[in-house]
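Cross-check.
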Amino acid sequence: MSDFGQTLTDFQTGFKTICEGQPKTGQAFQNLMVAAESDGVLSLKMKELISLAIAVAIRCEGCIAHHAKATLDAGATREEVLEMLCVALLMGGGPSAVYGSEAIRAYDYWAAKKG
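Predicted model, tokenized:
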């Protein structure tokens, strides 16, 4: 994965196709996302850090592109992302080192785009 913007666009386009083909399921999933990401005991920032850690551990490139941007947008610092990646490495082993490096590159990509 090297073009995080394209990866995110590809994911969004594909997900839109699924939602158009199966609108009830698409809407249900979108409702779940809204509910799960709403501030509660955990902040949106914490939830996005958790989502990015899971994306790394399960090796999902589209998830990494999406949640790296969302983590930045939620206010997570680079230092917080790096510390979270250590936990993802602990839980996901060696492959998480590979995908963790992609996650920090994705975070840096979105941070550079944001200015």
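The chain has a mean pLDDT of 94. DSSP finds six helices and no strands in the chain. Passed to J.P. for a second look.
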